[in-house]
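New to this. Explain these tokens.
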Amino acid sequence: MAYLLGFLQTDGTYMRNGPGKGRISIELAARDINILNAFQRLVPYPTSITMRSRTTNFSKGVYTSAVWSLGVAEARHALEALGLPPGRKSAIIKPPNRPFSEPDYVRALIDADGSVGFTGKGLPFVSFTTASPQLIAYVCAKVFEVTGVRRTVRPNQRDSIYNLLLTCESAVRFAHWIYYEGCLALERKHLKAVEVIGWVRPPGMKRQTPRRSWTPREDRVALTLPIAEAARRLRRTESSVAVRRHRLRTGVVRVRDG
């Protein structure tokens, strides 16, 4: 059920239509109907799967999707108690406040709002996108727990979206934790995850030195002192200070308190 909850939180819709009325649904491309069939078998309440075809701006010709729906009040209330809010939810969803299978839950988040695969340069990656500060904090904590890699992700300036990206060994370790053998998952992402898990760093390929994060104090120094002086005090290059100052002044990076 942890996988279903995570999928509903990130890619589902919960609409209330008045006292005692409402519907929970997930709409996916027809190619992913197998996961909806699995949800139908998993949920011990009547559900339906219908097909829908329409013309859209992002597909050539007719786009066909499959819609899984659940209307039973008892089931809706149970899912709501676990952490599925009705209405607009992208910025307020958070992990359940009771014990749950964490690999299954995180895998659902990645399946619904993330990606698994290889970059144009052939490097493995796992990514996740969300508008929820509580969800990104949770996933970053799991990344550190599983891989030992610390990620601090801040919302972008344009639409306050958090974008997490793991590459190389950290992506391999995280994918291995999420996509274990026999797990419930979108088939196409599971297949790609198996490829990622099998990646080995080629001989001679250098490891990147972890980037040094900027603190609020360093941001103030970069903004107020001449670039050469700021670079000397912060033990950074003048180029690094100049780029950071430009990003702070143009709003690409938010000025933080601290």
About this structure: The longest strand covers residues 47-55. The CA atoms of residues 82 and 168 lie 34 Å apart.
